C-alpha cells in the first residue's frame, strides 16, 4: 500500500513562503503528480502548517468555506491558478529564461498591484509602524496574497542566481548555503533518487 499523502506529510524544504506555496504539488516535472490542495480545507491546513495567518482568521475562513461550498471551490481554483503563475515566474528565473520571465511578469504584476497591494494597510501600534493585511470578511483567497507579496520581495531582494529549481521534481527554493552549490530541494529525497538514476543509467550504458 502506498504512502498516504496529506498536508501533514508534506515536506517544507524552503524558508521562503512563496516557494513553499509553489511546492504544494508533489512534482512539477511529472504528469503523475499529486496536488496537496485537494480541497479548500487542505489549503487552510497548509496555511496553519506554515503559520501564514492567525489561527483565528484561518478557522474563520474554514467555517465560512464549510457554509459556502461553491465559493470555497471557486476560491480553491483561483488559488491553484495563482500558484501556477508563481511557479512559472520562479521557474523562469531559476532557468534564467528571459523569454519565459517576460511572459509571466505582466500577469504576476496584475496579481501584485490589483489584489495583493490593495489588501495592505499601514498600522501604527506601540509607537511603531507595520504593514498589515486587511481582513475582508468572506475573502477565502486572503492568505494567498501573502505568498504573492513574498515572491515580489524574493525577486527584489535576493541574488537571482540563488533562486533554483530542483532538477528531479521541479520544486523551487532559495539556495541559502554558504557556497551556493545546493542543487536539489531535498538532498535526502530528490538528491539520492537523482544520483541513483544517473548511476543506473551509466551502468546500463556500460553493459549494452
Automatic annotation (TrEMBL):
Q: Which one Pfam family would you cite for this protein? A: zf-CGNR
The record places domain Zinc finger CGNR at: 162-203
Q: Which residues form a coiled coil?
A: 55-82
Which key words are in the record? Coiled coil
Q: What is the name listed in the Swiss-Prot or TrEMBL entry for this protein?
A: Zinc finger CGNR domain-containing protein
Originating organism? Chryseobacterium aquaticum subsp. greenlandense
